[in-house]
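Could you help me review a protein record that somebody else here produced? This is what I was given.
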Amino acid sequence: MKYFRYLILISNLIYALDIYSEIRKDNDNKKLEWETSEKEYKNKQENFINWEIVPKDLKNQENFINWEIFPKDLKNQENFINWEIVPKESNKKEILKGLEKDLKFTSERIYSENLLEINPIFPLNNFTKNNEIQTSIEWKSSFGGGKAGGTGQQNNSFKIDYGLGDFTQLTAIFAEADDDFYNYINGKRAQYSWQNYALSLKKKIWDSPVSNSSISFQPSIEYFRISSGSDETRSIYNEKNDLFYKDNFGEFIYSFAIPYTKKITNKLNYNLVPGFVSLPNRLGTRTTRNNFYGNNFYIGNGFTFDFLENLTLFGSLTSPLGPGNNYFDKNLNFSKKQIYSAGMNWDLNQKIAIETKITNGYGSTPSTGILTLPSDNLTLYTANFKYRPNGKDTYLEPLKERDKLISFGGITVNNALIPKNETGQYSLNIDSKGNYNTSYSYSLSNIFQLELINLGSIYNSNNDKYINKTFTDTYLDKDNFNIRLGGKFLLFSPQKNDALWTSFRTSVGRNESSNQGYIFSELINTYRINSWLAANLSSKYFYSGIEKFGALGASMYLNVTDNLQIIPEINYLLDKDKKSNNTISIRYSFNENKSIDLYLSNALNTQDLGQLLRSKDNKFGVKLNLFY
């Protein structure tokens, strides 16, 4: 924006004066004075330096040059400076007087303004850069499953933001929710599903450097697929009879928002967003009243605060004004509820960002973001992973040869290392009891690995019960097949002069036969003790709607030769009623990209939950590891 040019130029003036002064002091210890240059000033020198401020109206300036100094190595550079040369014929006196009180030192953040919205109905006046892409995967869930059970009610989404220009952005979103209602509807179990396909365009329409304010316009159009009921439950859109069947509806819906932003300080922004969403009032013909949300005007107030250079705090409160509603209870009574959101956005680097927040807005698109959880109004949590392919990555020193051997991971205790950017990791293992697990992960950055595929099944015919019967029937039943996905973030590393490797890994997924899921998280630490020994310590946590418990995992990597390792592991359950398990393996590395593990273990299996539980039988297994 134009105003930033003034701020940047005065910062450069101060910076240049300071440097020049230091040089003169070092060279001749002479005092240096700067004097204002006037037209009538008489001086024998033909050439002198004249510092000038760029005028507000750059349209009258046909020729000026932007000098930009970029860091050679981004790992050691946090800021860069814009220099500007202005033609001499511009008159600057009045501009200088008017801007004196407003000029402040600023520098451009190396991290881009990637917080594009506070929630789907509260867009911000930030944009994806021209011809660049940002992708986002959001996990949104209630803290419990209610009458539906499980880890919670989820409405998860995938979003792509594309910069059509510096201040024009195209966004595509897919979101899906599929579960029993959180509460029984009229005292009976009921099911629903939502699918949203959304397309929106955000365009800046007004910008005032003088008042530090801007306005944008964001319309959206969506296709909303809604269903309720099944062969076992009644549809909530059927109020005429008690027949069990599934109602399906497809509706085109739309919305628009007009975000206004006022920059209060260099770190604090105030945001005001009026908007409108258009939803149907009624679905189906088996009703005598409005049985859906209807149209809503709304107005929202919010803020963003740059707490640190790469950490932004934010919050908003949005009030629906009607004439429609955005909430219904367990008796299908509709009303209005305010939508709140609060959280933080953390830029790990220019490629990777993590956003977490709490909100009661269940929808994940601009036209559904105003809706609460179906059948209730609860606080939800969200975890949003953002990826920008064109961003600069964190620089890490290459791994040493011995460390490359441990980067394959473990059997039941993982380590904190992450393969370098654009590296795929594949593993496959099977044991003598028929348990199997296969996974594929890909490093989107030097500090983040995305777990795209993690499939496994547990055969426990010789084991009657784990923890309790409900738990066993939910996650370890005879036909269990577990599908999971997740990610692993590198927090500390000796490759960037830290004492040890520390990573955080989390995964989500469910057992397909019971349709119930769980969350598995671990904080992993790896320490290189000497050239032939490395140690791992991992704190693990299992959470579900049925049970939750923690464990400590520990392992060691002992190098016998350059390509042969012995890896003992233990998982110690923190619940006294649960038994710990042990594993020992021998790893042979064919090269830095291929290895094979032979192991003996009494862990239930090697996939997340299976790592924590103890089997009654020991088993032999083989695991293949591959980088490419």
Residues 2-28 form the longest helix (27 residues).
